[in-house]
Write a structure and sequence with these properties.
This protein is an alpha/beta fold. It contains twelve helices and 13 strands. The chain has a domain of 209 residues: Nucleotidyltransferase, domain 5. The protein is globular, with a radius of gyration of 27 Å. The N terminus is likely disordered.
Length: 348
């Protein structure tokens, strides 16, 4: 009996030793996994920062943007202070030139505010008609797109904030011609076009193909079609079919379709697309501040895409085209326009 008991004791000790060995191996494996994960994060971070280093950053004076510090008073019953702070808005300037460097002083061909609202998980793309009659600080009443010619992004953002009571301080400027390489790198975009728009693209796209140097391609059908970068740029520039508001709508649809295409890409496709996008823009956005928001958006991309809103502000139903001193302007009710901006940006 004693021997049996001793044997039992010996067996128990042996099992404990084996368990200790297994536990030690597991700990080592876990430790190695943690190291691998940390290394991967480090590589990812270095990759992000190497990309960021390629961006054309141009700061502006954020103290001179006529920022409205009282917007929260209008949305406090809809958003908490932290939810309000999480809303990100950037003004997008599209210039129709091959040069987006500082020496370019042309008018902004496209003015669009892009907003990300985490509470409602939504994206808004808001076009501001380029002929909108506004007060440009230091220059008096004029078309809003002239602000870019007078003072580039600095004066343009100040003009938007001052006339519409907004608090925008960040911008992204892209040469619309740069859309060619971006859209081509994602494999084209799908858009619905009319027969008349197809005809315009086929007649005018050669200008865009001259920019890219690619072989000219013609559309053979209308309806839902896949557009190349050159065809999409030509479509965005179309001032012939419809009016200027139709044209602004086309530009929003091009960007919507590009967002949809980007959301469908795998990791390698996104990396390739990011290279194209970053080299085509100039901005004062600190991209690292947006990483958290972007990761959240990517993880909920289907909801954000479903909640994407496209609009024009000021809207046509409370605005009018007028000839003033021989020049056409789009005059508006500023109070109604301010309310629309709040509605689309903050979900009020």
């Amino acid at each position: 009996m004693d021997l049996l008991n001793k044997g039992v004791v010996i067996i128990k000790k042996s099992k404990k030793k084996k368990n200790k060995k297994k536990s030690g191996i597991i700990k080592k494996i876990m430790f190695l996994l943690i190291i691998v994960i940390l290394v991967m994060i480090g590589i990812a971070a270095s990759n992000i920062y190497s990309k960021i280093a390629k961006v054309n950053f141009q700061e502006i004076n954020k103290e001179d943007l006529a920022v409205n510090s009282n917007i929260y008073d209008k949305v406090f019953d809809t958003l908490s202070q932290s939810e309000f702070s999480d809303v990100k808005s950037v003004v997008f300037f599209g210039v129709d030139s091959r040069d987006v460097k500082d020496e370019f002083s042309g008018r902004s061909d496209t003015i669009m505010i892009a907003s990300l609202n985490p509470k409602i998980k939504g994206i808004s793309l808001i076009s501001i008609p380029r002929d909108t009659y506004v007060n440009i600080p230091g220059y008096g009443k004029d078309k809003i797109n002239h602000a870019y010619a007078f003072g580039k992004e600095q004066l343009s953002i100040k003009t938007i904030n001052q006339n519409f009571g907004l608090s925008i301080s960040e911008y992204v400027t892209i040469d619309f011609s740069g859309l060619i390489s971006i859209i081509n790198d994602v494999g084209g975009i799908n858009l619905e076009i009319t027969q008349e728009e197809m005809k315009y693209i086929n007649e005018r796209a050669n200008e865009s193909y001259l920019i890219s140097g690619n072989s000219i391609e013609k559309l053979t059908k209308y309806g839902i079609v896949e557009l190349s970068g050159e065809q999409a740029l030509t479509h965005s520039r179309n001032r012939t079919v419809g009016d200027d508001f139709t044209r602004a709508g086309r530009q929003r649809k091009v960007l919507e379709s590009l967002i949809n295409k980007l959301s469908s890409l795998d990791l390698s496709g996104l990396i390739k697309a990011s290279d194209s996008i970053l080299k085509e823009v100039k901005t004062n956005v600190n991209i690292t501040d947006y990483i958290g928001s972007l990761l959240s958006t990517i993880s909920n991309k289907d909801t954000y895409i479903a909640n994407m809103v496209s609009a024009q502000v000021p809207a046509a139903d409370y605005s009018n085209g007028k000839i003033i001193n021989g020049t056409y302007y789009f005059t508006t009710n500023y109070d109604k326009a301010k309310a629309d901006f709040i509605k689309y940006i903050y979900g009020k």
